[in-house]
Design a protein that fits this description.
The protein is mainly beta. A hairpin with a 5-residue loop joins β9 and β10. It has a ten-stranded antiparallel beta sheet, covered by helices on one side. 34% of the residues are buried. It is globular, with a radius of gyration of 17 Å.
């Protein structure tokens, strides 16, 4: 691992501790304008997310109804009853977003895919960057909010589903994430500047509890509005 990546992983609790854990769950309160644009206003305003730490698998509950949950893996997404019966499913779901832009509405299964990729990414980074196939390079520092942030360019391997193959993360002097940039490929490559803060600790792992995502210009500047997505985490638990 690079010097910066090693520093960052240690700041978040260390790879050894991470490998001792298997799953994470959290309560999410979510807002922002994106859900309405996609025709999914309020569906995920107050839900629980559960994710596997060492394979890309994630679920939201409730999902549109009290007895429904989503089931996400890169190659398949489904909506199930809480008893595990499949209501509807979609194989190779990423292909269903062909031709989409930021304004294209989503089906409920497409919503399940988007939030599955997003929350698995957010809940497992930066530890995932130590997995096989990741490439990381430190970029020049970035000045913002009166601070100098170190930056890490991350290239994701093809076996994982995430917003975009190439992403950039910004870290404060404490090694914790301040900002996370990506281009959402399933929305026509729309740029996002994702601000991360209010860390807490659970089972020795540092977890941010506040996420605020804004549009980003091609030059890398975050726009102050609109607020695309807000996510506030609580009740975080590892097993």
């Amino acid at each position: 691992m690079s010097d910066l990546l090693d520093t960052v992983i240690e700041a978040h609790g260390g790879l050894e501790r991470w490998k001792q854990l298997d799953r994470v769950s959290a309560r999410l309160h979510q807002g922002g304008v994106l859900w309405g644009v996609k025709g999914q206003e309020g569906v995920l305003a107050d839900v629980y997310a559960r994710a596997s730490l060492h394979e890309e698998r994630e679920s939201h509950h409730p999902f549109g109804a009290p007895d429904r949950r989503s089931s996400f893996t890169p190659g398949r997404v489904a909506i199930e009853t809480t008893d595990g019966n499949v209501v509807e499913a979609l194989e190779q779901p990423r292909a269903s977003f062909a031709g989409h832009t930021l304004e294209t509405p989503w089906t409920r299964l497409q919503l399940a895919y988007f939030v599955g990729t997003a929350m698995w990414t957010y809940l497992t980074q930066p530890f995932t960057f130590a997995l096989p196939g990741f490439q990381t390079t430190e970029l020049d520092p970035w000045q913002e909010n009166g601070e100098e942030w170190r930056r890490l360019h991350v290239t994701y391997p093809s076996y994982l589903a995430t917003h975009s193959t190439e992403q950039t993360l910004y870290f404060g002097a404490d090694g914790l994430i301040r900002r996370h940039d990506y281009d959402v490929e399933i929305q026509g490559g729309s740029g996002g500047a994702h601000y991360i803060s209010d860390y807490t600790e659970a089972e020795g792992i540092k977890v941010p509890t506040k996420h605020r995502i804004f549009p980003r210009t091609p030059e890398g500047q975050a726009l102050e509005e609109p607020l695309l997505i807000s996510i506030d985490l609580s009740e975080i638990a590892f097993t």
